[in-house]
Amino acid sequence: MRTIILALILAIPEAALAEPLSFDDALARATNSAPLLEAREQQIRARQSAAIAAGQLPDPKLGVGIDNFPISGPPAFSLTRENMTMERIGIEQDVPNLAKRHASQNRADANIAAALARSEADLRRIKVATALAWIDAYYAQKRLEAMDVVLERLRRLPGAAVSAVAAGTGRPAQSLNIRQSIAELFEDRRSMLVAEAGKARAELARWTGDPDPQPFGPLPHFAVSREALRAALVRHPELELASASVGQALADVDAARAEKRPDWGFNVAFQRRDPQFGSMVSVGATMTLPLFPGRRQNPRIEAARADAVAAGAEKEDIRRTLEAQLETALAEHAMHHEQWMRARDTLLPLAQREAQLETASYAAGRAALLDVIEAEAGLARTELDMLDREAAVARHEALLALTYGDNL
Q1: pLDDT at 28
Q2: Which long-range contacts (CB under 8 A, 24 or more apart) does 369-377 make?
Q3: Is residue 273 very low, low, confident or very high in pLDDT (cuts 50, 70, 90)?
Q4: Cβ distance 336 to 398 under 8 Å?
Q5: What pLDDT, on the 0 to 100 scale, is given for residue 174?
């Protein structure tokens, strides 16, 4: 009894995880459980934390030492016999120029923007992949159901062939030919559909974390508008990421230019001597001297400018690539939609009508049983082909809307 109860308790999580999975639930699970998105969130926090220190003054320096310690003459190696010997303790503070600190702040802001854009790009990729995986699993199940209906209808034909043989209107080999055709054309294809359904569920499990996802619910519908998709392309995460890379490169240019401005430093020190001589205080300032920009600062500026130009060119290349991919996807969607409409409105009605006419002709004695079988097999192929075309349309609608549009 305890063993049975334990087995039931252990089976509860599995049953919970095997619950039907709607399209919206699949996207929500993928968003909440994706390790890559968690990594991007931590990267954003790291960049935001690093930005707090950007542009701040460097830490001050504490200096200690002995000045003017004699090593020769009568006061050699004495701390008190020479009036210039002093024990020194002081503070130094370096002050980079303001342009350099502003450039550091701008670079930190650009790093945050890049991390955010990368997170958005990965979020979109994950949602698109999850949506396509759900649609593939959904139609894989529909294909299996349609194939079972087709096989149930076709498996009645061998019995009709046997009856025809008994009645003297058919040949004995016809029933064998029918069984062979069903096994080769449809039962083999059903085995392939079972494998495809397993692959689709495995891909969906990869994104959702559900070990046995079962798609259910209405199929999502996405309106595909060429104008809307083109307008939304400028806000594509890949372009946002490229823009952030340009911002990083421009911040590096500003930092390189800031190297041509002098940096400052300030120091103050207390110097203690023997009481008979008295103590001292020293105050000073330092300034860097960028005297040779042709061999130091200017080459770095040119290198940073070249990187900025390269980042801009890469952004333009990404923009053109996205535009070309969008136009290609729109053309493929139009093709698949036309093929689906043709199959639904023309090919399927014709195949149904042909099967009906051949059946009526066979009943009237004007057609052979083989003609009926061929018509039924053609109808089955048309039904399955139409489902494939419908799946292609649904897949391309989701791909277009989620990859290039604002509708996430």
Answers
A1: 92
A2: 369/160, 369/161, 369/164, 369/169, 369/170, 369/174, 370/174, 370/177, 372/157, 372/160, 373/157, 373/161, 373/174, 373/178, 373/181, 375/351, 376/153, 376/154, 376/157, 377/154, 377/181, 377/185
A3: confident
A4: no
A5: 53
- Token pair for 231: 């307008």
Please tell me the predicted confidence (pLDDT) of residue 168: 47
Contacts of 123 (CB under 8 A, 6+ apart): 31, 37, 40, 237
CB 131 within 8 A of CB 396: no
* Residue carrying the six token digits 């593939």: 136
Residue 57 structure tokens: 């003054």
Q: pLDDT digits over 139-194, tens only?
A: 999 988 888 887 777 666 655 554 554 444 455 555 555 666 666 656 777 888 88
Q: Which residues are CB-neighbours of 249 under 8 A, at least 6 positions away?
A: 304, 307, 308, 310, 311, 312
The length of the chain, given as a count of residues? 408
Contact 294, 317 (CB under 8 A): no
Range in 107-111, 125-129, 149-153, 367-371 with the lowest mean pLDDT: 367-371
* Distance, CA of 42 to CA of 274 (rounded, Å): 58
The CA distance from 390 to 341, in Å, is: 9
pLDDT at 228 over 70: yes
Cβ within 8 Å of residue 128, ≥6 positions away: 398, 399, 402, 403
Residue 5 predicted with pLDDT over 50? no
CB 186 within 8 A of CB 380: yes
179 compared with 5, residue with greater pLDDT: 179
3-class SS at 168? coil
- Name the pLDDT band for 61 (thresholds 50, 70, 90): very high
Sign, CA dihedral 58-64-68-72, equals: negative
Largest CA distance in the chain: 141
Residue 271 Cα to chain centre, angstroms: 63
Cβ contact 189:146 at 8 Å: no
Task: List, as own/partner pairs, every contact residues 347-350 make where C-beta atoms lie below 8 angstroms and the sequence separation is at least 24, other chains included.
Answer: 347/382, 347/385, 347/386, 348/382, 348/383, 348/386
Helix (H), strand (E) at residue 201: helix 188-208
Q: Rounded distance, CA 104 to CA 55, Å?
A: 5
Would you list the DSSP string of 23-78? Answer: HHHHHHHHHHH-HHHHHHHHHHHHHHHHHHHTTPPPPPEEEEEEES---SSTTTT-
